[in-house]
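Hi Q.,

Before the meeting this afternoon, I wanted you to have the 2-acetamido-2-deoxy-beta-D-glucopyranose prediction in hand. No need to reply - just skim if you have a minute. The sequence and ligand are here:
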Amino acid sequence: MHAKRFSKMARPSSSWWMALLVVAAVAQLGASDLRTDYYNSTCPNVESIVLGVVKDKMQATIRTIGSTVRLFFHDCFVDGCDGSVLITSTAGNTAERDAPDNLSLAFEGFETVRSAKAAVEAACPDQVSCTDVLAIATRDAIALSGGPFFPVELGRLDGMRSSASNVAGKLPQPNNTLSELVAIFKSNGLNMSDMVALSAAHSVGLAHCSKFSDRLYRYNPPSQPTDPTLNEKYAAFLKGKCPDGGPDMMVLMDQATPALFDNQYYRNLQDGGGLLASDELLYTDNRTRPTVDSLAASTPDFYKAFADAIVKLGRVGVKSGGKGNIRKQCDVFN
Ligand SMILES: *[C@@H]1O[C@H](CO)[C@@H](O)[C@H](O)[C@H]1NC(C)=O
Ligand SMILES: *[C@@H]1O[C@H](CO)[C@@H](O)[C@H](O)[C@H]1NC(C)=O
Ligand SMILES: *[C@@H]1O[C@H](CO)[C@@H](O)[C@H](O)[C@H]1NC(C)=O
Ligand SMILES: *[C@@H]1O[C@H](CO)[C@@H](O)[C@H](O)[C@H]1NC(C)=O
Ligand SMILES: *[C@@H]1O[C@H](CO)[C@@H](O)[C@H](O)[C@H]1NC(C)=O
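Predicted structure with the ligand bound:
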């Protein structure tokens, strides 16, 4: 497909501006080559195959939703959307997923991709990248849990390296300042509005107590142990779930609608009910509060903002040409 388009553009009859177009096309190789019908001829049923697997996995556990979406984010933020997060460590290589700030990537996300890839391989061997399987599964998990359905761009290759040492500083942390968060998103081509929209991924899934216990017990000791931006009732509830020094349990990120991918997340923030400090910050900081308010107020606006932003995210650092391939098995390099 690429070769065809290329040879057309590179015909000898090309005028000088045609040559410029070719240069522009080469410069953009990667994200610009993504297409929603990329597998039309090589694996026409890929989307329905993945959808079937995601439906089954979601029926088995709602943890499928948050863990699959999180996997996609983590993958794209570290070295681009290239499936590098799916690789398991070997004796000689500690892979991305085993980095200290892997955000406790959950088994269910990996398992969804593994099953979906196996089903896709059975229908169309060696055609579809693991990265694209993850992108489709992420879209489906979102749409099946009440979030927006959006056409998913495809044509990413799987990357050829995955290193834990590459992760530090690339993923948003619960204790980042707003400026730090903005910078991390910006380095991935995402603006502040995209960042607020994408944060709705915390409308589903769980977080460990250790990610927010400082807000409950060590905010500004000794006079102010608890973060005052936390709703008091919510703080008391969380203290019950996460006693100081207790086991590192997991808590639902959105207590109101835990299995729905919806804009309740933003209403929680308005109510002092953001779980992580980096969630509540979006409301307390006046640079992002107007976006929170507008997404809280309108489901259609939320759908559009989220879909636009995640499509943009899916274009980050896409590998093409010799920089990638199609893995046979998602957790090991070919
Ligand atoms: C891909 O398939 C869809 C649906 O069958 C069709 O609408 C579209 O035109 C096809 N695209 C190409 C490039 O064949
Ligand atoms: C995430 O990293 C921790 C070590 O920091 C490791 O114990 C855990 O197994 C990793 N999670 C996955 C899913 O690999
Ligand atoms: C943020 O949390 C990490 C642990 O997740 C810690 O290493 C770091 O020191 C914290 N940064 C600040 C500014 O508190
Ligand atoms: C935002 O808040 C800062 C201080 O927190 C204040 O100086 C600034 O005027 C505010 N900006 C707007 C647009 O409200
Ligand atoms: C941010 O990007 C979105 C598209 O994802 C765009 O609609 C919006 O206008 C941008 N916002 C700013 C402030 O540039």
